[in-house]
Amino acid sequence: MPTSETDRGHGGRAARFAVVDPATGETFDEAPDQQPDELDAVVDRAHRAWYGWRADPAARTTALRVAADAVVTAGDDLARLLTREQGKPLAESYAEIARTAARLCYFADLAPRTRRITDGRPVHSEIRWRPLGPVAAIVPWNFPLQLAAAKFAPALAAGNTMVLKPSPFTPLATRLLGSVLATALPEDVLTVVTGREPLGARLASHPGIRHVTFTGSVPTGRAVAEAAAASLARVTLELGGNDAAVLLDDVEVDRIADRLFWAAFRNCGQVCMAVKRVYAPARLHAEVVEALAQRAKTVAVGAGLDPDTRLGPVSNAPQLARVEQVAKRALADGARAAAGGHRLDGPGYFFAPTILTDVPPGSPVVTEEQFGPVLPVLPYRSLDEAVDAANGTGFGLGGSVWGTDLDRTEAVADRLECGTAWINHHAELSLAQPFAGVKNSGVGVAGGPWGLYGNLRPFVVHRPQEA
């Protein structure tokens, strides 16, 4: 297994921590609680593995393709374990496995291009690309495998080695993925380490790590950047979003309601680029609220392993407390729950799918990222008012505009201050496109060729022309 388990607790036993099933709220397994002082050996092995891995691009391509096949073969085991520790419906776990394999295939076939500069001098100047060395990825709990692949696939394709740390809420599927990938990759090219803090902080600040890529909250992202600065390591930070959906006055509510609902509630709303605020024209506001509330009241909520489930639990106890807090605050501020607004009775971390109306625009459920199954729907009187409100938070990951006149819709989308804008849909990405935010939503670019070049450095060779 490509993980280090050398940490020992009292009595010589390996230290471990509990992993909880969010559908029951009970521990169902444990993971190694590795300590920061173990990282020196892990990074050293990654550095030694780098020399062979970077030297043979053709071998890397073959290995990554074999790795993708191995992920597909292990799909059943990976999907069930992912659902057990994260909570999402099994169908969504299978989709995450497929996306993981697809990223490996995509980057296996992507290579940097050498470029010659012609500037009138009697010198051939050529830009080549070199890998950085051992790199680190710190991955959150909402899409642990898909986001891990978004980091390790371009890094490995570029010729780097990687130390990968999953969230302590979802370590098991990532450990299993590491074992699956170990059947295709040379030893120590990808190492999975699991543990609680300060393991992640030590990894981000480790002097042997040349690039740190992180997905998570803004405060933790700032801490990661500060830690990486000690060794001048490159950072890529994806720090979440508070995406707005702006509905225009020609929108056909009944035609978009399903797409809009699932753009907000997929993975129980625990998606960085989910719709987290809806702005509707005042004359359509009640109709939009009713359409979304009807879906929230009737969607099948339950354990992810139940084949009838469409919406699983919130993934962990701290996030459930956060969701409950922002919903209660909104209701206390005068909002009304058209659907939901409360925890569900029984075991597990379930919160009723919630549609809020009459929400004060300064309520935290509007200004902050709730990251759960709670959606405020706010009316607007003028389009300028809606655009200003959509742009009026510290986030800028994504946004969408919904309407019938596509030229007008696109013109409004062009006014959104975000990295990606969608028209009549939301949160759909191609593997070939860049993914980045503005403002507090992040630093750097992932996805497509941009993700590959983010894991490389330019190397320029000057050669005199032949006489």
TrEMBL record:
Keywords for the protein's UniProt record, in alphabetical order: Oxidoreductase
GO MF entries: oxidoreductase activity, acting on the aldehyde or oxo group of donors, NAD or NADP as acceptor
Aldehyde dehydrogenase domain span: 15-452
Keyword Oxidoreductase: yes
Pfam family, one: Aldedh
SUPFAM superfamilies: ALDH-like (SSF53720)
Active site: E238
Family of the protein in this entry: Belongs to the aldehyde dehydrogenase family.
Protein name: Aldehyde dehydrogenase family protein
